[in-house]
Amino acid sequence: MTEVLDLYEQPYDPLLPVVCFDEKCVDLHGETRKPLLKKGCKLVDYEYVRHGTANIFMMTEPKGGKHLARVTDQRTREDFATCLKWLEGQYEDAITIHLVMDNLNTHNEKSLTQTFGETEGRRLWARFTPHYTPKHASWLNQAEIAIGVMARCCIGNQRIVTSKTLEKAVTTFWKQRSKERWKIDWKFTTKKANRWIRTFCSEH
User: Fold this and answer.
1) Alpha carbon distance 101, 170 (integer Å)
2) Which domains does the chain have, with CATH numbers?
3) Longest Cα pair distance anywhere in the chain, in angstroms?
């Protein structure tokens, strides 16, 4: 925990970007009946048709105000590897990319070597410095904040039928946020965490 929090407290350096990485599964739903417009309101039937799911890879640079999202049909090792290769291209001048993520079994070097081969996979993985959040503490990943904002302000309760429609909505939303340099004001520091741990231990 303190490793991640210490990283968050470092001053912003564009050559050492801190990027928080997470995923969100989205259900794809279609309408059973054509929606009606009544007095400016859109009325939809409570029944819907399932069209499977899609996955959103969320990458947010809290202090840099940069937010990137990639929509895929799944979240396999190959999807993760392809996403990291794309992410590396967004930070070509970086010395290393500090990558904060959870302990999902695809979040490792093996995904890259299986997808791109040993040489290219290891080269690509070496461009990142991974920082894993503790088990049961994924809330330390600031990408979850970005996902929460996206879920409320972009996806909402609308019914999205295809992954292409989802990709268009998500990309448009985050392009605007990045243009506005929308940043996350993270308040939970290592000092606060240590104080919380001491209090917890004394009570138990």
Assistant:
1) 20
2) 2-203 (3.30.420.10)
3) 61
- Looking at the DSSP bridge assignments, the partners of residue 71 are 56
Specify whether the CB–CB gap between 26 and 155 falls below 8 A: yes
Please report, in tens digits, the pLDDT of each residue of the chain (204 residues total): 999 999 999 999 999 999 999 999 999 877 667 767 777 776 676 666 777 899 999 999 999 999 999 999 999 999 999 999 999 999 999 999 999 999 999 999 999 999 999 999 999 999 999 999 998 888 999 999 999 999 999 988 788 889 999 999 999 999 998 889 899 999 999 999 888 888 877 765
Query: What are the two backbone dihedrals, phi and then psi, of residue 33, each rounded to the nearest 5 degrees?
Result: -135, 150
Question: In this structure, what DSSP letter does residue 140 have?
Answer: G
CB 185 within 8 A of CB 67: no
The one-letter code for the residue type at 115 is T
